[in-house]
Structures are given as C-alpha cells and as structure tokens.
C-alpha cells in the first residue's frame, strides 16, 4: 500500500461531473491507492478505502510495538534476572534511532516534496500545547543531563548503557520537539502510509518511554535505601540487607559530594516532566496521524476566529487570584516543612484543608456553567475536528489517573482508621477530587462542542478601540487614556448578557484554579506519597507505581483543562 499521485489518471464516468465542478487547484491532489481496493470504480472511493486500510495497518504496527515493549518492561519487573533494565534500554534505543531516521527523512524529504503540505489544520498544535512541549522537552533534556552526570560519578558500578541511553534520549527529545513545533499542523498529502507508520512508531516509542518512567524506580529505591542506611547508623545499628532485589545500593551509594547530591536532587525534581513530555507528544502526534491525507474544505475554515480578551470579567479573576496566592503560600509552607527529616503533621492538615475548601467551589462553578450551557440556545458545532475529538478523549482519559489514585486512597483509609483527623481529611480530599474531575469534564466538553457567540456590538467595539489606538498618546493624555480604557471595560462588561457574564467568570476562575493545582504537584508537592498512609498500606513498590501512573496523568489533566477552559472562555 502506498500513496500515489493520480492527477493524470482518467476518472470514471460517474465521477466526471464531480471532478468537473472541482476548484482549479485540485489537479495537484494526491489520492491514495491500495491494491486491496484496485477494483473500485471511483477514485474518491479508492481514496477513502485506502486511507482506512493505511490507518489500520499503521495502528497494528503501533499496537505490536507497544505490546513488545510492554512485555520487555513487565519481564524486567517480574523477572529482573532474565530481562534487565539494560535490555529494555537497548530495545528503546533501537526504536528511538528508527524514529529519528524517519523524522529526519520527513523534515528533509517528505515535507519538501511538491504539493506535500497543501492544507494545514488551524486547530492542531495550539501555541499553549507547543509551548508546554518545548518547556517539558527542555526539562527532559536537563533530566537526562543529570542522569548522565549521576552515572559518570558512579561509573565504577554503573554500566555504559546508562550513559548511552540518556545521550540518545537527548537527541530524540530535541529532534522530536523541533519536528512537532514546525509540522504539528501539517495535513501531509504525499507518502501517506510511510508517514502514518512513522508517526505511529513514534507514538508507540513515546508510550513505552512513559511506561518505563512510570515503572522504573531504580534511582528512587537507591535514595530510599541510602536514607534507611543513614537512619540505621544514627540509631547505632548495622545496615541490614532488607532492600528490594536488583538494587545494588551498597556498592552504588552516592558519594558525599555536592555534585552528586545536585545530580540526584535534580533528577528527582525533573522526573515528572519527562512523563509529561511523552504524553503531550503522543497527543500531538496522534492529531498529525489523523490529518494525514486530510483535505480541508472551505466550510471547515472559520473566517472570524474569536480572540482572547480579558474584558468582561471581574469576580472570576479576583477569586482565582486569591486562590492562586493562597495556594502558593500553602505550597511554600509545605515544601519547607514536608521535605525535612521529620515532616510536620500540621502541614499535611493545612495542605488538605486548602483542597477541601477550593474543590467544592470549583464543583459548584462547573455545575452552574453546565446548567447555563443547557439553557442557552447556541448550536452544536458538528464540523469534523480531530483536535476537538482528541481533547475530549484526553480529558476523559487523563482524569482516570487521579480518580484511580483517589479510589486507592479511599480503600486504604477505610480499611485502616478513617476516624483519625488526617485520615478524615484525606478521605474528604479524595472524594471531592472525584466529583471535581467529573463536573469539570462535563462543563468543558459541553462548552467545546458549541459554536462561539457572534455579537455585532463586539465587532463595533473593536473597531472603536482600533480607531482610538491609532493616535499617539502623549504624557499629558495618559490619565485620560486610562479613564477611557476603564470606562470601555465597564461598558463591555455591562453589555454582556448575564449568561455570557457567568460563563466567562466561571471559566476564568477555573483556569486560575487549575493553574495552581498544576503548579503544586508539578514542582514537588506530593502528599499522596509523603504522608506514608497509602505507602505503608500497599507497600513501597506498588504505591510508587500507582503514583507514577496517576500523578503524571493528573498533572497533564490540569494543564490540558486550562487550554479547554480558555477555549470555553473565548467562545463565550
């Protein structure tokens, strides 16, 4: 199966009328062909069937790669003697080299062919997605630099694979970030199946890297064992060998030097960003895979695209800013006390109390916004949009991480001592998180599927502002200009309908709340692992895997929901 250009091919008789009415630029369309559907009389029908078979074939390729890598990683976990971490790294390095070869070929060959990128999806790869991709990609590169430095310091007991693997990872992350930044909107029209297979291979590699990051706790176990050894020495006991199998921590202890500690702490701090980077890449590459061979009609292009304006909201920014400021204060207090040698019990109470106050407000706001969506008369946007469909899937899928962690916490608390004060707070926190995720998902998804408002007065107001902004503002006119802007802000706010006002206020409030709830776990506030309750109930390795599975999804959900809420705000 391969994508070929059929611009000079004679069309079938019943398609002559359709092609005759086509616009002049359609002579350069590269229709897809497949030997499985060579008997189809219509060129368009062969194109559709070939597209489906190409997607099926590339999807099967990705599925087999994921299953193979998952089998390696699972074997490493359950039988670390036969399959070691080095074997998994070798397999992933081979996959990354293959992905690098295809990405370079796409950049230098496929994308430069004539009529390769005729259409571009304006909805794909928004700025906030690509910006976060660069941010997390930079942190992932820095993470691998710390890992290389940490392995070089312990070169006497570390294998050379532990230096080669992060080196290839740096090259892979940098090349992939460049590729996604420049080509995330492409609707490629040549070499369809090769591009689909390359994209699916890259998606499968990113998924396996995420799975390895979730399950690989080697360095964390080394740090945990070193802490136990220090505690035993302070207690006057000889170090005992009760460490998990496969961790040679006695021979690979980090030297008591500043450089080693910096590499170690830097690796632990940046560890969540790598998992976040893999998830974002998978989502963007999936949209690119859906857009291969896609031809966007003029009906899919919105001539008037809503722009982000802060006008029309008052209470949402005020309440959201208060939540952010209080959250930063709670986060700083938590980081100072919880990261010490003996975490204070009160800091956990303060942390969970903040969530217990904030989450009900977010739930109420999302419920009110959903009710307003049901009352308003905006029509649903039924145009085909792969980006919006993926947004819905990601919101639902990413929410499962935190919901799963919450249910694990609920079971652990109910089975131990639910009447304890801290346990009661954790129980309330877990239940409220489940409700907050569900209500916010309903509000965002309902808002994304509706068409934006088209208000004539907004256009007139914008023209009025542009006419005023063209003139120069002198130093003496600054006071009058500030007064004019303030009156314009009040005028815009007063002319909005009450439904639009409430939707904008709620959306902006939820945006700021999700930002602070993204900042706190991303930069080190992990009470679900540090309070010790679930860890003692499920065991270190089991709870580590659960947290590493749910926490990156939770962080990704908060960041992704910010983008969805901003779209809801703009459309209102």
Give your account of this protein's structure.
The chain crosses the membrane at residues 56-82, 88-108, 128-151, 163-181, 193-213, 268-289, 310-334, 354-372, 392-414, 426-445, 506-525, 537-557. Belongs to the otopetrin family. It holds the Pfam family Otopetrin. It is a multi-pass membrane protein. This protein is mainly alpha-helical. The protein has a domain at 310-458 and 489-571. It is 70% helix and 1% strand. The strands form 2 sheets. The protein has a two-stranded antiparallel ribbon with strand order 1-2. A two-stranded antiparallel ribbon has the order 3-4. The longest helix is centred in the first third of the chain and has 36 residues, at 43-78. It starts with a strand and ends with a helix. The model is unreliable at 1-27, 238-250 and 455-473 (pLDDT under 50).
